[in-house]
């Protein structure tokens, strides 16, 4: 958690340093997060067989903020924070194990325009960390490197306010040989691949200062 707070504090200073170069855009948003699943390691059940059971991540609403600042004549730098509260849901009746789980993305990146039509579009992307925080006491928090790619459009209401609609894909980098949420050298959940993927649809209001 301390490393997440340190990164959060560092990233928050970047828009402040860039403020002198032009207007700052702040976009609080609400969204809907989809995708992502885990597998529970077989030793959680006290069995010797190398088996595992799937655990889904409950889809649900998310919220966050995007801070953007000028990078050059066309591009912007962006700071993204997106958070949602979910639940680990066993995909099999053989597993009684569940836990609330919060997933937070903290990314630094940028955007570039794709079109200047009546309804303009931008391509955006970034990198940073994903922070997993399970509620269950026997599961530890985890912080992993991650990246994101997305598209969005803005519908200008006036010179200072716009509606921002977007879609984004997050990919968290996890070694398939490693396990997650370990406690006292006992790992409860393992990822089944090298990349954990979620997608997000979002809508927000962009305020220009």
What does this structure look like?
The protein has 209 residues and is mostly beta strands. It has one helix spanning 2-18, and strands at residues 25-34, 37-41, 52-57, 60-70, 76-90, 99-115, 121-134, 142-156, 161-173, 179-183, 186-190, 195-208. Strands 1-4-5-6-7-8-9-12 form an eight-stranded antiparallel beta barrel.
Top keywords for this entry?
mainly beta, 12 strands, 62% strand, elongated
Report the portion of residues in β strands: over 45%
In terms of per-residue confidence, which ranges show pLDDT below 50 for 5 or more consecutive residues? 44-50
The largest sheet, given as strand count, sense and whether it forms a barrel, is: 8 strands, antiparallel, barrel
Mean of residue pLDDT?
82
Q: What is the β-strand count?
A: 12
Q: Measure the end-to-end span.
A: 31 Å
**Neighbour order of strands in the largest sheet:** 1-4-5-6-7-8-9-12
Assembly of the depicted chains? single chain
Number of helices: 1
Computed CA radius of gyration, to the nearest angstrom: 19 Å
Q: Portion of residues in helices?
A: under 10%
Order of helices and strands: HEEEEEEEEEEEE
Question: Which descriptor suits the 3D outline?
Answer: elongated
* Secondary structural class: mainly beta
Give the secondary structure arrangement, pairings included:
Elements: H1 2-18, E1 25-34, E2 37-41, E3 52-57, E4 60-70, E5 76-90, E6 99-115, E7 121-134, E8 142-156, E9 161-173, E10 179-183, E11 186-190, E12 195-208
Antiparallel strand pairs: 1-4, 1-12, 2-3, 2-11, 3-5, 4-5, 5-6, 6-7, 7-8, 8-9, 9-12, 10-11
